[in-house]
Amino acid sequence: MSSTRDIDNLIEMMAKLPGLGPRSARRAVLHLIRKRALLLTPLSDLMQTVAATARECLNCGNVGTEDVCDICTSEKRANGELCVVEDVADLWAMERSGVFKGRYHVLGGTLSALDAIGPQELRIPRLIDRVATEAISEVILALNATIDGQTTAHYIADQLDGQVTLTSLAQGVPIGGELDYLDDGTITAAMRARKSL
Amino acid sequence: MSSTRDIDNLIEMMAKLPGLGPRSARRAVLHLIRKRALLLTPLSDLMQTVAATARECLNCGNVGTEDVCDICTSEKRANGELCVVEDVADLWAMERSGVFKGRYHVLGGTLSALDAIGPQELRIPRLIDRVATEAISEVILALNATIDGQTTAHYIADQLDGQVTLTSLAQGVPIGGELDYLDDGTITAAMRARKSL
């Protein structure tokens, strides 16, 4: 490589980001260098700001710039519904859909015997605490439809059994989905949960 | 979005990088925030350094941290061969292959009537200048095998005709390539340039 060490290091570090590899990192860095006044300097400044201000909400685990996030402080969202998600990305996905008006609880992962992740490693004790102390009427388990996600949902359901209404996301054919391309599990779930028209 | 403005802005800016879209930018930013001490702060610092030090070589157009790049100052590379490429990324690709021991000239694009890019917008006058003043025996036109790339190669060949030996990269079957997957143009080129064993 003819580029000097800082540029090489920058490429190497960018290549570690999810979604980028060595090739796309090189392209991104060249793009940044070409537009350094317009893009590289502002991006660096913004990263500095975010590095200094970003934190996890002490209550729900969402990422924001306050100790307690906007959703947890908003009175409008205190409707008694609590949506449990694995990850902040899932919370953001729910928010983009705009369908949910309650509050969230981010677990920070799923239970995994293989990776030695037990309830204490996740935000599960805090969830049990919130259900006991906040005015929560329904806990919606919006965990991923993976084995780990469903195991975690079952564990939480066991812990909260009898204290609160428990629901989970419906499973079935995704909007725009073609039967031909769906796996057997999805078709089975959609068939079992069929609705009368 | 529940994340606050700086985080949103960072996602938006990251999404503008080549190879990243809104979804992968969100994933990357969450990853960066999770590892802010290990990744976000060092990345920001490095960007600041690169923004301050990166510049184009005044001689060849390569990106580095000096006014004249390592390759242009290295005496070892003054072997009379000059490799003309469209872009710094192409120069880096050539360097990774390690096959070329001479110097480079980065045009900064290709001629394009549609986009009103003429020789003056590229580093073509500087190329003609270098051929006239440096001890160059061969100019290798390593431009992309696209229409714009080949048009530019023809233009440069016209300008330098008679002053220096002009060559271009061989065209043919790429290493590991399967005939079945190659386009007609490549097969035609490979057939025309066939070699005796």
UniProtKB/TrEMBL annotation, chains A, B:
Gene3D superfamilies: 3.40.1360.10, RecR Domain 1 (1.10.8.420). SMART domains: TOPRIM. Residues 80-174 form the Toprim domain. GO terms for biological process: DNA recombination; DNA repair. Pfam families: RecR_C, RecR_HhH, RecR_ZnF, Toprim_4. Keywords: DNA damage, DNA recombination, DNA repair, Metal-binding, Zinc, Zinc-finger. The keyword Transit peptide does not apply. InterPro entries: DNA_Rcmb_RecR, Rcmb_RecR, Rcmb_RecR_Znf, TOPRIM_dom, TOPRIM_RecR. A zinc finger (C4-type) spans 57-72. GO terms for molecular function: DNA binding; zinc ion binding. Belongs to the RecR family. NCBIfam families: recR (TIGR00615). May play a role in DNA repair. It seems to be involved in an RecBC-independent recombinational process of DNA repair. It may act with RecF and RecO. This is Recombination protein RecR. It comes from Sulfitobacter mediterraneus.
